[in-house]
Every structure is written in structure tokens, then in C-alpha cells.
What we know:
Layout (H helix, E strand, L loop, with lengths): L9 E4 L5 E6 L3 E7 L3 E8 L4 E11 L13 E4 L2 E4 L1 E2 L5 E2 L18 E5 L2 E5 L6 H6 L4 E8 L3 E8 L8 E13 L5 H19 L16 H16 L3 H44 L5 H20 L4 H18 L9 E3 L2 H12 L7 E3 L3 E2 L20 E10 L2 E10 L2 E3 L3 E7 L4 E8 L2 E4 L6 E7 L2 E4 L7 E4 L4 E3 L2 E2 L2 E4 L4 E7 L5 E8 L2 E4 L5 E4 L4 E8 L7 E2 L2 H6 L1 H6 L28 E2 L5 E2 L6 E3 L9 E2 L14 E5 L2 E5 L1
Parallel strand pairs: 5-8, 15-16, 16-18, 17-18, 18-21, 19-22, 20-23, 21-24, 22-25, 23-26, 24-27, 24-28, 25-29, 26-30, 27-31, 28-31, 29-32, 30-33, 31-34, 34-35, 38-41
Antiparallel strand pairs: 1-4, 2-3, 3-14, 4-13, 5-12, 5-14, 6-7, 6-13, 9-11, 10-11, 36-37, 39-40, 40-41
Amino acid sequence: xxxxxxxxxxxxxxxxxxxxxxxxxxxxxxxxxxxxxxxxxxxxxxxxxxxxxxxxxxxxxxxxxxxxxxxxxxxxxxxxxxxxxxxxxxxxxxxxxxxxxxxxxxxxxxxxxxxxxxxxxxxxxxxxxxxxxxxxxxxxxxxxxxxxxxxxxxxxxxxxxxxxxxxxxxxxxxxxxxxxxxxxxxxxxxxxxxxxxxxxxxxxxxxxxxxxxxxxxxxxxxxxxxxxxxxxxxxxxxxxxxxxxxxxxxxxxxxxxxxxxxxxxxxxxxxxxxxxxxxxxxxxxxxxxxxxxxxxxxxxxxxxxxxxxxxxxxxxxxxxxxxxxxxxxxxxxxxxxxxxxxxxxxxxxxxxxxxxxxxxxxxxxxxxxxxxxxxxxxxxxxxxxxxxxxxxxxxxxxxxxxxxxxxxxxxxxxxxxxxxxxxxxxxxxxxxxxxxxxxxxxxxxxxxxxxxxxxxxxxxxxxxxxxxxxxxxxxxxxxxxxxxxxxxxxxxxxxxxxxxxxxxxxxxxxxxxxxxxxxxxxxxxxxxxxxxxxxxxxxxxxxxxxxxxxxxxxxxxxxxxxxxxxxxxxxxxxxxxxxxxxxxxxxxxxxxxxxxxxxxxxxxxxxxxxxxxxxxxxxxxxxxxxxxxxxxxxxxxxxxxxxxxxxxxxx
Length: 651
């Protein structure tokens, strides 16, 4: 039992904190798995060989759906499984309900009203109500196995329904040694009846075309085999036949679970192909013929699901075929697994990949991307359905003509992120981002260890009602902004705002080697900051003066190269560039010129004297840093050096 919690039990779980012990010590101690796949078991060595049976009180709820009879939770004994009953299958009628005996109708989490067939009654709503139901004999499940090697393992597991919030409470294990099958004939009748009850529910299960996650179909061939087993079980009389049927039921129950999961993958792939092809077609990104071909291919999956004509293996093959078809109109990946983004079409597809569950997808921009073909871009990642957690590397390229326009929506940006890394790109002045609140390049950020933004520029117009900024609209966890610039036009209707971060409360974060030359258009009573938050650390961060914090620089400092030089710190690594007289502000583009400082304090580009070298200095070279300190021979880090009396830029 679970009087000592999970001690002496072997627990395996995708989310270990999802498996807990509890209940009511004065009634029954229990365990439960919540919103996780798991296995809880014990193993006994050196037991007599023979037939064993196990019973446990417990049930499994798929997702939050009380009414679904979709099985996923299992009682197991060595290699044999049986499904646990569902939450609604053992309802206690209101006529028979006795509070504190077979149900819990008082307290803060009483059992809930439930109708199952013709029975109107109650089912447990939380672990605290389960001990009363289990002690009264409700939700009783059996499994059996023949031991041939002296080793017996038993327990409860849930490989997952595929939905969030699965719940599997259980307890009151009983293990029985039956000897031979004939000696255990009477007990095997109870075990076989438990299998037959589960089989009847599976056979009569009403699958759905639309809600295929909660009500999935499986192959008609397996259904016919299940029906045959049910007929044989009804006529079984001797213990050997019953044990053989228990083994066969165990096998087919596992096959049905696998087939259902394969059918779900098949229809999901068909939906994905249909959705992406439709979005691309509506945005004029694929031709009529390619769109029609994609839909026809998707219907191969839909038809197979509806007809139930394919096996588990065939369903997985169709799902793979549909994914391949999607790849033909989708995005290419490089050898490192990064999506290669070269067009507005690729950006739409990438956003859809993240929306469909590939939140950690990595991507690189292959060139500058003009987004003018997209009327209103859908953000990459959503606070409600999955934040983006991958690496997005712009490789120095820019976005132009990007429109993200959701004036009645919170958390609007090119991204909504968890622990993502965004780097090496910029949004030019033709880009526009509009939302209701939390509006920026990253509308919403929520990550235990923060997101990382590096080498990013913002020249866009950003508009919203609150928490409007260049880089983060709202940042709930510590993040870093490094080597970033913003000359954004920030328009905030009714609240304070920030050049870098709209709001981060008291969450820690760091901004390093960055600058803001932002134009604010905000309510008269509002204030503008570099970042709205009490625990932001600023390291070598500059502003032209419209922000109420940060190191101030003048327009002349920006134009003269002073700011660019300062952003490169001690000049040991050159990240910032500015071609004086051409660039109005520093940029992160190495094709522009390095800014140097004269002894008289002025700044200049000395293009003729700057050489780019990729190899170590030769043995005869005299190498000094800009402070005049002679350096050892070898590979030089990035930066500017004096080699044989000439300035050298090492990239």
C-alpha cells in the first residue's frame, strides 16, 4: 500500500512531480499520476512459478473529459496489461450514495454529479474522495500472468492519452498466487470478466471524425478480432482457456492503444498538410494545382481514418507520407536540422510549425526577407498555446515590410518566447507591430532562465495600449539583451513604456553594450524608460536622452562615432561598425567600417590602414594591442591590433 508514500515503489515518470501519494490515512492511502506519463511498480524475486493475479482499485481519466471512455491507464503484471476503468464507468447512484462510506459529498472538494447511461450519481472529483469509493469496492480492476522465471512485477502505468491533464488515482493492491490455471479457475473468472468489461467498452466506443484526440478510431480488423475474443470468453469454462484468453486480451489491448495513437498521428498529419496548404494558398504562396494536389493527398489520411481500413503500421506509413508531402511545399532543413528561411512563405510555414507543436524548432535566415506578400503575419509562438523555445539566427539579414496588426490582442510581436535565443537580424523602418498590450519584437517572455537576444536592431514602428517596447513587451523572467540597438518609433496610448523592455516588474535581467535612440509618442502623464523594472542591470548602455535612465549621449556623439567606439568597450572585440558620414547610427554589419579614436579624442574610419586577416601573425611580426602592450605570438582574438606599425583588424 502507500502508507509510507512512494517508498519501496519504483516510480518512472516524464514529470516526476506528477506522481504523488495521498488520500485519507484513516480510510485508504493512495497514489496518483497527474498530467504525466508514468509507471509505479514493485518487483518480487524468487516467487514460486505459476499463475498470479493482481487487483487494484483505480481509474483513469483522459484529459479533463469525465464522459470519455478512452482508455490509457493500465494495471500490469509482468508483460500482461489490462485497462483501468474510466472515471464515469463506476458511478454510484444517488439512491445508493452514502457520504463518507461509498462517496464523499462534503468538504471542499466533494464528488461531482455525473450521469452514465441511465444512472445519475456521483464520481470522485479529487484524490481525497477516492478512498471512500475504493474502500466500497468501486473501480476494481484485475490482471493475471503466468510466472515461469520466479520474478513478478506488478503496478499501474499510464503511457498517456495524448492530451493534457490525464488523471489516474489508484491504490489497494492485492496479489494472489493461484497455483495452476485449474486451481485458480474461480479467480480467473473474475479476472477474465474484468477484461471482457473493458473489451465491451472498447467495442462500443463512439469514435469521432472531428475530435480525434479524445475519441480516436482504430482499425476494423482489430475490432473484429476483439469481437471474436469476446465471444470465446463468454464460452470459456476451464482455467487454461481463461488464462489463454487473458493473454490474448492483453495483447490486443496493447495493439489497440498503439493503433489509436497511430491513427491520431495520421489525421494530425492530414490536418497539418491541409492547414498549411490552405494558409499558403490564401496568401498566394502556392498555385491552384499544388493546393489541389495537397488536399487530395491529405484525404488519403482522412479516408483511411474514417474507414478504419489500415493497420497501425500502415497508418504510420501514411503519416510519414503526409509529412513528406508537406516537405515538398514546406521549408528545407540544413544538415544541422535548422529550417532555412528565405521567403515570406517560409516565415509563414515556420510560424505554423511552431504553432503545431514544434516549439523548439531552430531556424536561420538565408537572405533579407521582404514580408510585403503577407497581409498580417501570425506571431511565432503564442502565450496561450506554446511559447517559442528554439534558436532563430538571422545571420545578419533584415526583415522589411513586416506587418503584425492585432489591435485587440495581448502579447503581440514577431515572437512570444520561453527560453529562446534570437540573434543577428533587424527590423527596418518599413516594419510595423501593433497590439493591445505587451507589444514588441517579443510580445511575451516567460522562461525560468530567460531568453537571449543578441545582435538585433529595431527600426520599426511599435504601437499598443500598454507595455510597448522594442525588444520585450512583457518579460516575466530574467533575460539578456546584448549588442542590440533600437531607433524604433514607439507609440503607447495610455501607460508608461520602455525602449528595451515594456514591463518586467522585479524580475532580474541584463542589458549589455546596447543603445536606444527611440522616438516616443505616449500619453502626457506617462514616462519612458530604457526598461520598466526594478532589477535590470545596465552594462555599457546608452540613450539619446528621451529615456529617464541610462547613460546619455547626444546626437553629435552618435554621428561622430563616439557612441560606436564606446559600444565596443575596450576594443578587444569589434561588434559595432559605422561608416561615418553615411551611417546615421552604429550598426552590427561588418561590411561597414570600424570606428577608431585619435589621440586628440576625435573619431574616424581609417579604411586604408585596416587589413582583415584570418591567420596568426607570423613569427617575425611585432604585435601590440591599442594600449601599446606587446602580445605573445599565436592566434589573435577578434579586435584591432598594431602589427609591424600598422593597424590590423582580426575577424
